[in-house]
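From the shared-data thread, chain only:
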Amino acid sequence: MSILIIIILFTLVFASLLYHLLSGPAHRLPPGPRGWPILGNLPQLGPKPHQTLHALSKAHGPLFLLRLGSVDVVVAASAAVAAAFLRQHDAIFSNRPPNSGAEHIAYNYQDLVFAPYGPRWRHLRKLCSLHLFSSKALDDLRPIREQEIQRLTRSLLVGRPVNLGEAVNVCATNALARATVGWRVFVGEGEDTAAEEFKEMVLEIMKLAGVFNIGDFVPGIGWMDLQGVVGKMKKLHKRMDAFLDKLINEHKRGSGGRDLLSVLVSLKDDEGEDEANKLSHTEIKALLLNLFTAGTDTTSSTVEWALAELIRHPTLLHKAQQELDNVVGRQRLVSETDLPNLPFLQAIIKETFRLHPSTPLSLPRISSEPCEINGYYIPKNATLLVNVWAIARDPAVWSDPLEFKPERFMPGGEKANVDVKGNDFEVIPFGAGRRICAGMSLGLRMVQFMTATLVHGFEWGLPEGVNAEKLDMEESYGLTLQRKVPLTVQPIPRLVRGAYEVVEC
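Structure, as tokens:
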């Protein structure tokens, strides 16, 4: 086996050298660091690629080229360059490159996130937009979100430290599940164990999906699975697939018919429905996989980052609580309808998305044809990575870019008119262009609502021996940006007791 591997590697080196000798540099490519034979720049990415690429952009500029194995990868590390790709040339970069995560976890590209751009993708997105993410759907499902957040506040009245990320994740998952499949997935006996197992699966998916798998970039050696990534993906897929099958089977035993899964199943079973619009059982599971991964962990991790920053900055926390007390009072919990009247709270959320974007590197895209960006030639089939994390730390755009300063988004601040919805490329936590996050409207509302409720409803203490000013803010890289050390906090109620009662709907 070892001799075979050596022969394969030698052949690949020879083929790579021959290709470059014959092709020659016919175009002005973006600058970039020198790489290794065969692997190119793969070994240089390190455990936190978004930080590594940020450092490389300082040396090579806001648009630079990497060679990952045999794949050309262009990196956009400034707002202007990102806009050139995702606004001026968005049509060219509307597809995803091949990758093992989409193949082995996302049902071989049958989902929404990794599906090829075209009629099928548009149909899936339209279904989600109509039944989950439209203004009408969001308003219709508001009582569900409010009830689940009330349950969250009740769960925090335990008088002991809690893992905030886990508690918020249960809330986000149950709110999404009730809208998607019609009931809470974590309830009653064994709730803590089931929720912990689900969160662990989602985190593992995000971690594996964020790995730069050598087999995706070096042809001919994928079967060896040198990093063991594909094997882990296949095992994890079986676990998640069993979870989704259970959801669908439970759904068949009875549903109110207002949830997304009811709509998808009705399309599948409707004999009069156009075949082009029908979804297979696998496609339904792939769509649910997207919703339950992208729609839960990203929300809970952002709320966790926001609370950590406010605990580190007690003056900002107190200011936010004052705003909430003035608008809402202390006799009830905040409601979703209060959110437009809370500009400082909204500024806190924007600043959290800036410093701690849920997806530090945008999901990759691939060019369908060559184009020119900033005077550089971008070849066909080049992979595009937008370093969202680096763009939001650009000192040419942001004053004190490493400081948590929500006031920059307030009237009179340096970025008072900037939003996070893909229009202003200085901060694009949901991406931009055609493949912007489909669930942006729901995700933004949930993050705002949960953060407002936690800030309004509680004072926040830390375990003994933990200093707020020295709270560990280290990142753990994956497809989503997690805290390396989960946030353990002591919630102390600050409203009247009756404010925490759950109103059934």
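The chain has a mean pLDDT of 91.
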